[in-house]
């Protein structure tokens, strides 16, 4: 089946509610047709600038609006970040993702250092991804010129539920940044979270906005809320892992060639639930002991699981493909 960019809310709601075995079968079929292998990309995260963020995202440990166990930390320097990237490469990662707890990118030393980090990560032959809030056109262009592979900027949930989760920016702000990233020629990493108290329709609406983008975002992270003490969403009921499987399968069917990334919340999943997500077409995971501020499965455990089920890490292309 050809890729489509005209999915409707009704169609997506139907997919999300398809009997599970049929849904997973369809997703697996689409995955085999379009991607032809079970290889899984290993992406490692690093928080370069932690905490003290002015945005009020209701799930986030790094928002200054909430009293959480995370304290604001000084910005990491270029050499330290690049040595972490080297370690990630040595451990088998092919993508290195760096986070800044900012509302938007500002000009100055920190941005110049961000560009140096991107150049350094690309020089190691790794894909480089940055997540640092909103940006303007010129910043997107400079990141592209530095060789940035992807910019992560999530929609998080559907547009109708967004203001229940975040009030300091709008869905429109989010979409504007995504357009700027795309226009600069950087690939998009854009997904969301389940478990925020949203309805099935909100999930469908988020997937609708993503899957009607042309081209689709190259990477679609699906996070399960990690309840952070002190945040408004701390006490949310845990998500049934089978709902996550449904979300992953539906994302795979809607966006056949995107990397569907099983992201936050994997630590609380059984091995079997993770394998079901892979059956449903997931082809990337975050790899390494830590996400940005919360823990993740150990690398040993992940490698053992992939080996056990005969899935290979997507081979890093160690070509130093970076602009001179
Ligand atoms: N400041 C940047 C921004 O707003 O895009 C990037 C950092 S933010 C931590 C990246 C994404 O991680 C969020 O958009 C959200 O989807 C996810 N995330 C953050 N905290 C989370 C949590 N407690 N549980 C699950 N996902 C979370
Ligand atoms: C994404 O969607 N998930 C990652 C990455 N993009 C930047 C971040 C998950 C953060 C989980 C909570 C934390 O570590 O604080
Ligand atoms: Fe800030 Fe990003 Fe956390 Fe929102 S998700 S509070 S923008 S770091």
Describe the structure.
This protein is an alpha/beta fold. It has one domain (20-309): Aldolase class I (TIM Barrel, Alpha-Beta Barrel), CATH 3.20.20. The chain is 38% helix and 13% strand. The protein is built from eleven helices and nine strands. Strands 5-4-3-2-1-9-8-7-6 form a nine-stranded parallel β-sheet. β6 (192-194), α8 (200-211) and β7 form a beta-alpha-beta unit. α2 crosses α9 and α3 runs parallel beside α4. The model has no long low-confidence stretch (mean pLDDT 94). Iron/sulfur cluster is lined by residues 53, 55, 57, 60, 62-63, 101, 133.
Primary descriptors:
324 residues; alpha/beta; TIM Barrel; nine-stranded parallel β-sheet; 11 helices; globular; binds S-adenosylmethionine; binds 6-(5-methyl-2-OXO-imidazolidin-4-yl)-hexanoic acid; binds iron/sulfur cluster
pLDDT < 50 runs, ≥5 residues:
none
Treating each run of at least 4 consecutive H or I residues as one helix, how many helices?
11
Average the pLDDT over all residues and give the rounded result.
94
- Name of the CATH first level: Alpha Beta
Which fold name corresponds to the CATH topology? Answer: TIM Barrel
Q: How would a crystallographer describe the biggest sheet?
A: 9 strands, parallel
Q: What molecules are bound to this protein? A: S-adenosylmethionine, 6-(5-methyl-2-OXO-imidazolidin-4-yl)-hexanoic acid, iron/sulfur cluster
Shape: globular
Number of strands: 9
The tally of domains stands at: 1
**Order of SSEs:** HHEHEHEHEHHEEHEHEHEH
Beta-strand portion reads 5-15%
Which structural class best describes the helix and strand composition? alpha/beta
CATH architecture: Alpha-Beta Barrel
**Strands of the largest sheet, in order across it?**
5-4-3-2-1-9-8-7-6
Helix content: 25-40%
End-to-end CA span: 40 Å
Radius of gyration: 18 Å
The CATH homologous superfamily corresponds to Aldolase class I
């Amino acid at each position: 089946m050809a890729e489509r960019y005209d999915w409707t809310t009704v169609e997506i709601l139907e997919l999300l509610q398809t009997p599970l075995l049929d849904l997973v079968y369809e997703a697996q079929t689409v995955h085999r047709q379009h991607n032809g292998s079970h290889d899984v990309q290993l992406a490692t995260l690093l928080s370069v600038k932690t905490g003290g963020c002015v945005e009020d995202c209701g799930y986030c440990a790094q928002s200054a609006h909430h009293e959480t166990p995370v304290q604001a930390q000084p910005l990491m320097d270029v050499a330290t970040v690049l040595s972490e990237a080297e370690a990630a490469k040595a451990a088998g990662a092919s993508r290195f993702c760096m986070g800044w707890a900012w509302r938007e990118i500002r000009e100055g030393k920190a941005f110049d250092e961000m560009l140096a980090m991107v150049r350094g990560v690309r020089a190691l032959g790794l894909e480089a991804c940055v997540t640092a809030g909103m940006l303007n056109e010129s910043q997107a262009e400079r990141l592209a010129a530095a060789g940035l592979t992807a910019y992560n900027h999530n929609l998080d949930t559907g547009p109708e539920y967004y203001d229940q989760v975040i009030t300091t920016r709008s869905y429109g702000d989010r979409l504007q940044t995504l357009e700027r990233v795309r226009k600069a020629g950087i690939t998009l990493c854009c997904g969301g979270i389940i478990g925020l108290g949203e309805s099935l329709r909100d999930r469908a609406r988020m997937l609708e906005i993503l899957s009607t983008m042309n081209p689709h975002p190259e990477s679609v992270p699906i996070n399960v809320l990690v309840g952070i003490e002190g945040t408004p969403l701390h006490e949310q009921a845990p998500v049934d892992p089978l709902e996550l499987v449904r979300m992953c399968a539906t994302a795979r069917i809607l966006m056949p060639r995107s990397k569907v990334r099983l992201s936050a919340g994997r630590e609380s999943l059984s091995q079997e639930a993770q394998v079901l997500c892979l059956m449903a077409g997931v082809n990337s995971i975050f790899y390494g002991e830590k996400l940005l501020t919360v823990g993740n499965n150990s690398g040993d455990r992940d490698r053992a699981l992939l080996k056990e089920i005969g899935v290979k890490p997507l081979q890093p292309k160690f070509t130093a493909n970076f602009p001179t």
